[in-house]
Predict the 3D structure of the following.
Amino acid sequence: MVTKLDRLGRSLEHLIELSNDLQRRGVDLVVLDQGIDTSTAVGRMFFQILGSIAEFSVISTRRDAEILDVKAAA
């Protein structure tokens, strides 16, 4: 059980690997804030969709920080 999906992994690939590993062990993942429960097909779908969004958010934040750094250096 985790509270937020973005606290579990840094990339969609990592999240999927972790989810698959937990599934092989018979462990379902529940994400409290997003209402995800990987014991259901819909929960697994939402897990992957929100994982993609979380990864995009991290990439966008890094890109924005890099742009600000470039502007500050100019």
